[in-house]
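Structure representation:
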Amino acid sequence: MKSRCPPIILSVLILSLALQTITIPALAQSEPNQSQAEFENIPPELENPYQRHSETGEHPDTIPPSPEIIAKTREQVNSFTCTDDMDVPKIECEALVALYESTNGAGWQNNSNWL
């Protein structure tokens, strides 16, 4: 039994090394998949969206709120009161109201269930 183990182990080792040698060049010669090709053809304006606006500080996708939206947000915030009988703690309610106010919540596309 002892004399048969080393030749078997040695055979398995040689076979596994031979298989690795055969499969590696086959993988290297394969064509790039479709996702790799798409990644290489990214339009220049989409390559680094964070760097594109960092020079000017402008974000063309945002529209500044109108004075009416700002006034409406301020009116909604002033008429809303966080109470202790709400589903969320008072301090969290106040933080959410501050978020709503600082981002002009009245101008959001979907502001349902806020305030």
Q: What stands out?
A: The CA atoms of residues 79 and 115 lie 9 Å apart. The radius of gyration is 32 Å. Residues 67-107 form one domain. The chain has a mean pLDDT of 75.
